[in-house]
Design goal:
With about 150 residues, the chain is mainly alpha-helical. About 65% of the residues lie in helices and about 5% in strands. The protein is built from six helices and two strands; from the N terminus they run ααααββαα. The protein has helices spanning about 5-35, 40-50, 65-70, 75-85, 110-135, 140-145, and strands at about 90-95, 100-105. A two-stranded antiparallel ribbon has the order 1-2. A hairpin with a 7-residue loop joins strand 1 and strand 2 (about 100-105). Helix 1 (about 5-35) packs across helix 5 (about 110-135), helix 2 crosses helix 5 (about 110-135) and helix 5 crosses helix 6. The longest helix has about 30 residues, at about 5-35.
């Protein structure tokens, strides 16, 4: 394959379209969450991921798992957790079985804010997808996203 290979060019164009769709969606949701709830997309995502923890086997996430789930580095995730903890939306505690482990839970205030913000997030996502579907280059990607049935 060379840099001018049509297959490589098509692959690069597909990647650019996917990146464009992601950027547009994220920017639209960011504006809506900031305006309505004072949350960034990353903050919302972190609250959402942590709210799904449970007390059963493997129910509490370690920081690396949280970082992977919100697509951030571990250090960026730690800083984000600290910011939300400072706002009273999260709390950290030591793992009862391994004193080296630290877990993070969403506080009642965090759960309340998340529930208030969820309809805003969902509506902004729908709006961004509907707008992107009008673009012939993005429409196939929108259809692909809409057809996914990924477990939470």
């Amino acid at each position: 394959m060379t840099a001018t290979d049509p297959a490589l060019t098509a692959l690069a164009q597909g990647w650019c379209a996917l990146s464009l769709l992601h950027g547009r969606i994220e920017a639209h949701i960011e504006r809506a969450l900031q305006a309505g709830h004072g949350l960034s997309v990353r903050e919302y995502s972190l609250l959402d991921v942590l709210s799904r923890q449970h007390d059963g086997e493997g129910g509490h996430l370690q920081m690396k798992q949280v970082a992977d789930a919100v697509v951030l580095s571990q250090s960026a995730t730690t800083r984000l957790v600290t910011r939300l903890e400072d706002r009273g939306l999260l709390e950290r505690y030591l793992c009862p079985t391994d004193r080296r482990g630290i877990y993070t839970n969403v506080t009642e205030a965090g759960l309340k804010l998340l529930e208030e913000a969820r309809p805003t997030n969902d509506a902004a996502l729908r709006e961004a997808l509907d707008e992107a579907a009008k673009n012939p280059e993005l429409a196939p990607l929108v259809r692909a996203v809409e057809s996914l049935h990924v477990p939470a």
